[in-house]
Input
Amino acid sequence: MVEGLRRVVVTGLGAVTPIGNNVADYWEGLISGRNGVAPITLFDASRHACRFAAEVKDFDTAGWLEPKEAKRWDRFCQFGVVAAKQAVADAGLSIDDSNAQRVGVAIGSGVGGLLMMETQAHVLADRGPDRVSPFCVPMMIPNMATGLAAIAIGARGPSSAVATACAAGSNAIGDAFRLIQMGLADAMVCGGAESAITPLGVAGFASARALSFRNDDPATASRPFDAERNGFVIGEGAGVLVLESLEHATARGARVLGEIVGYGMTCDAYHYTLPSPGGVGAAEAIRLALADARLEPESVDYVNAHGTSTQANDSNETAAIKSALGAHAMTIPVSSTKSMTGHLLGGSGGIEAIAAVLAVTHNQVPPTINYSTPDPACDLDVVPNQAREHNVNVVLSNSFGFGGHNVCLAFRRMA
Amino acid sequence: MSQEAIFEKVRSIVAEQLSVEADEVKQESNFQNDLGADSLDTVELVMALEEAFDIEIPDESAEGITTVGDAVKYIQEKQA
Output
């Protein structure tokens, strides 16, 4: 942390996830080990090599979106805007002409409005260019969750939508943290949103050999750090936080959930999809986050891992955590909540930052479910199958994305 | 197709496209002022009418169609 930078706190949370459509249900799901994975219902996946996913269930937009918005908007925008509204309500933040210019939005997405793009590509081929929807472009661009959330809450300050694949949500939160630290905004509504469970999305990730094909037993397919893991399970949803300068939060008497203290990011500069051997890029991101927070590795109480359940991620992330935290890594819980939520791609950083903050407020650590067979290459304490009471003051949240993006965020209890 | 039949068909398309109740869609309803359509909604609505009635509505003509009645009248003339 550089001298003169402002302190930044978390004051509101919003979540739409495969295991709960608000923060309370999501956290209850994480602590009870709820499994969000099931056969795909959003489209006919009978021809696909992977036929299951972690879908958002019973998503009810009544009270959050107008009927026309619910009909028009791509699903990732609906998730993002609902989570943003939940977070702003949770923070008790009112936005009006007096502060609108000082409140911003940064909701990242790895993929954007894939279903709209895919559907309209069929319209183009079958019915010609004159029949392509006027909503094709606005609904497929990955910044539209940010744009629509800003309209919905009336935020006219800084706005951006980072697209660093599965690190997008964490990048968005980190960038928002920096903007507030530097005094360019007083509050930021930030996180990630994604909905890529579409015929093309599932086929594409399957062809990249990133997905588990465990069709005979989908509920056990997302098994991070387990020796029998064979790919990730695609998920969808959004997680959004309200960050504020400590000064701003204090002045309005806001409830403070925790402080965001560190942001580290690097690039592997190595391969499209594979992490660099030994997780060296990820390790450096963790070191940078700790240095930014002026924290020693020994102060870390819990790591919410990226933990995708792919062979390559989980072993390299284990190496990265051990490299960055040294011997201390073997003494703390390191769990992957993707075992329950699946992998929300650009949305994962948002919901996992929420899990990290709530681990601090509840002094509880969510488990890694579906864990049965130890892998010598993943030998950290992954909190197998059962949540744990644990004193959590400092927590790290890792997110890594195709393209070699590595992000680590550090949160701590308000001192 | 009678004017009444065209109106009924237009009304159901407009209600569906703009997510409003069919009762709210009247001959004199203005798409933008009364039914909440924005510029993109209007483009999409014109496309839907073209498909439903198997006609072409050039942009110059579409600009003159601001109410449900305008659309009904235009379609009736095209079909005459």
